[in-house]
What we know:
This protein has one domain (17-211): 3-Layer(aba) Sandwich (Rossmann fold), CATH 3.40.50.850. Helix content is 36%, strand content 19%. The chain has helices at residues 13-16, 31-34, 39-42, 48-66, 87-93, 138-144, 157-170, 187-200, 206-211; strands at residues 2-4, 7-9, 22-27, 70-76, 123-127, 149-155, 174-183. The protein has a five-stranded parallel beta sheet. Strands 1-2 form a two-stranded antiparallel ribbon. A hairpin with a 2-residue loop joins strand 1 (2-4) and strand 2. The longest helix has 19 residues, at 48-66. The protein is globular.
Amino acid sequence: MRTIQGVPVLDTLAELVDPRHTAVVVIDMQNDFCHPDGHFARNGKHIGAIAASVPALSAFVREVQARQVMVAFIRQLTLPQGLSDSPAWLRFKCRDGKTPEYTVKGSWGAELVDGLMPGPRDVVVEKFRPDAFVRTPLDGILRARGIQTLVLVGNSTEGCVESTLRGGSYHDYYVVTVPELLSSTNPALHEGSLQFMRARYPHATAAEVLAAWPDAATTR
Length: 220
């Protein structure tokens, strides 16, 4: 713990990820982004790194759930007939040649990949833009649970992950990233985003995060 201008500030990894005030945020691990039959792969995106991250990310989440630490599963959605897409957002979604009909609400593509299953202490938050805090109930849910720290995993590193990292930071949460459990279709942008995150925010391995928690289940 440090004191800055008379204010106590969490500092060490153990303090930051204390399970009593930490939530793991799983971002956009959905079939359309991660599965070989999903929208991204069908539209020429190289999803190899994302698909390869699924087993380790799923194992980490199961360990988190076993310790009864809160998990917030974030799902990017599109409403049928594009009802959630403004002209500006349509242009953004189609900038790289893919079509905009991905993770449509109610579709297989919008579902979480196999291996990820919300538990009774977890929440699922749906969003229509990259930042999980934009026009969603996420902030209110986290504050109701007494959450101070977000541990971020998921995809895409330079897109929805970085957007949510910035959103969480600007909503006054401590933010910790797990770089080995972040992935993208673009290696160069992935590395550039990781450099930004490492320069400004704490990061740790999955093993380090789990080691900072007691073996016994926690309660909140």
